[in-house]
Amino acid sequence: MKDTLIFDVRNIKDWDFNEYEVEIPPSRIQLEIDDVEFIDQVCGSVHLLRHGDNDVYVKADVSTEIEMQCGKCLEMFTNNIAATFEVQFTPDSNPEEEHSEEIDEGERYYDGETFDISEDTRRALVIQIPVWPLCSQMCEGLCQNCGTNLNDEICSCEGTEDAEGNVSDVSSPFADLSQMIETAKLENQNKSSNSKERFSKNGSS
């Protein structure tokens, strides 16, 4: 079991997959994210293949456990995150040259006899952290009126919400418009009835 993500090329066999089990403290690879606590070791397996002119192909499967706050009910909950990534390390013929733009393209450079996949591991895990964390897909969240956690108990504000909905319907401008239309209809009916009555009287005379 390795407790580091730094590997020595000299210990990797040519054209043969070398597998390592790893277990790393989150702080060692700078896994420090706001509102997220890493509560377990970063564990996984790393496969290495040396080929060509000391090029090294890397495939890693890593996972850890985190604690965060639910975006709906605001309760803390734990979640397991896992990631898989593949990168290629190549000996750096120009160590003084900047290669930072290559980090997103799966190509890395190393100087000397060792290379480090700590940054790749950190990035792969951070991407798996949910942007809108939910303790459960069935989370009911909090009551908007009293703040009760609806996952734990039935909120007494349900009847109030219905009453408020009825009040809002009555006080809406569309309700006034509907009432105006009904009034106009009644007025037209009354006018029509009065006209018929006058015509009937005039005709009978």
Question: Domains counted in the coordinates: how many?
Answer: 3
Task: Provide the helix percentage.
Answer: 25-40%
SSE pattern, N- to C-terminal: EEEEEEEEHHH
Q: Which word captures the global form?
A: elongated
Low-confidence runs: 160-175
Structure characteristics:
205 residues; alpha+beta; 6-stranded mixed sheet; two-stranded antiparallel ribbon; 3 helices; 27% helix; elongated
Task: Explain the overall architecture.
This protein is of the alpha+beta class and 205 residues long. The protein folds into three domains: 122 residues, no CATH class; 31 residues, no CATH class; 33 residues. 27% of the residues lie in helices and 30% in strands. The strands form two sheets. Strands 2, 3, 4, 5, 6 and 7 form a six-stranded mixed beta sheet that branches.
Task: Indicate the topology.
Blueprint: E1 6-8, E2 18-24, E3 36-38, E4 42-51, E5 55-69, E6 76-91, E7 107-110, E8 114-116, H1 118-127, H2 158-171, H3 173-204
Parallel strand pairs: 6-7
Antiparallel strand pairs: 1-8, 2-4, 3-5, 4-5, 5-6
Summarize it.
The protein is of the alpha+beta class and 205 residues long. It is built from three helices and eight strands.
